[in-house]
Structure formats: structure tokens, C-alpha cells
UniProtKB/TrEMBL annotation, chains A, B:
SMART domains reported in the protein's UniProt record: HTH_XRE
Keyword Thylakoid applies: no
Keywords, alphabetical: DNA-binding, Transcription, Transcription regulation
Provenance organism: Paracraurococcus ruber
Claim: Plastid is one of the keywords in the record: no
Official protein name in the record: Transcriptional regulator
UniProt cross-references to Pfam families, sorted A to Z: HTH_3
Length: 80, 80
């Protein structure tokens, strides 16, 4: 898997873990972040390469800072 | 300033602060991250909305995890 794809799937795992911790469904996160539910699903599957603005919307929807959201990122060293 | 623009300029400040801390010039960061120097300048000025893959390249170029890089982010609660 190329480095870029790997980063996207790692980020997707972080969003899924953080969302699970908050108890939100993908639908609820989509509503809170103003992003389409299917896009959230694509991000969690590592199929999307979101921009900074979208990443900030997801973090806001989770009620996390960006640093907190990325700390759910297993592969690059972080929180379980 | 709209929320998206604000996030980009906040991220730009974080990259500049992190780069200053590592003592790298924009040129050196551009070389290490495989990104064009003028693009790095645009990111630091908050004029760019980089994708996750580009953000990861910048973090790698700085030798930081994403969580560490975003912790240089003043506005959203962080490290000085």
C-alpha cells in the first residue's frame, strides 16, 4: 500500500475509534459536522483524502481538537 | 474570516512554529517533505487547504506525528 493510501486508512481508523468513543453513529457525526454520511463512511474506510477544512469539520463534529483526533491514530503512535 | 479560512491560517501558523522549532528553512522543509517550496509558503500564509496526504508529508518533513504537529496549533488549544 503506498504511503498516501496508508495515511488515509490510518486517519479513517482514527475517526472510527474517536467516533466509537463518543458513541456517535456515522449519521449523527455527519449531521454534527455538516458532511454527507456516505463521505464519512468513505473517510473511515480510508477511501477519501479529505482536505484540512473537512478534517476540521470532522474534529468539530467529534468535539475534539485536531491534535486529539490525530492522537487516536494507532500507526503513527498514540492513544488507545 | 470564515471558519474554513480560519482553520487554514491556524494550521499555517502551526507549521511555521513547528518549522522554526526544528530550525529548518522553508526550502529545507520542502526538500524533506517532497513538496514545492512555494506551496509550503502558501500553507504557512494560510492560503492553502492541503489534503491529508500533503499534511502527512509536511509532518514527516518536520519529523513529527500529526498529533504533535497539530499541537503547535494556538487557536485550537496547544503547545507554545
Amino acid at each position: 500500500m503506498d504511503r498516501g493510501k496508508e495515511n488515509c486508512s490510518t486517519f479513517g481508523d482514527a475517526v472510527r475509534r474517536a467516533r466509537a468513543k463518543t458513541g456517535l453513529t456515522q449519521e449523527e457525526l455527519a449531521d454534527r459536522s455538516g458532511i454527507d454520511r456516505s463521505y464519512i463512511g468513505g473517510v473511515e474506510r480510508g477511501e477519501r483524502n479529505p482536505t484540512l477544512v473537512v478534517i476540521c469539520k470532522i474534529a468539530d463534529g467529534l468535539g475534539l481538537t485536531l491534535s486529539e483526533l490525530f492522537s487516536y491514530d494507532n500507526a503513527r503512535g498514540s492513544r488507545d
